[in-house]
Design goal:
4 helices; 0% strand; mainly alpha; elongated
């Protein structure tokens, strides 16, 4: 979905493509919500850095 949206495809077009490929109805509203939700999630690299930093901070707090 995100790749199609980055290519400039409309939500309606994405909805029809996903519905055809999955053989399950994907309403335009679902596609819109999914694309909007996924665009707010940081890339995996940032998540990994965040988790590593939190683990390091937690272990140092436990040593105090």
């Amino acid at each position: 979905m995100l790749l199609l949206r980055k290519q400039g495809k409309s939500y309606r077009h994405i909805s029809s493509e996903i519905t055809k490929s999955q053989r399950k109805l994907f309403p335009v509203s679902w596609v819109h919500k999914i694309v909007q939700r996924e665009s707010t999630i940081p890339p995996n690299e940032e998540i990994i850095r965040h988790n590593i930093c939190n683990v390091e901070l937690q272990s140092s707090v436990a040593n105090v």
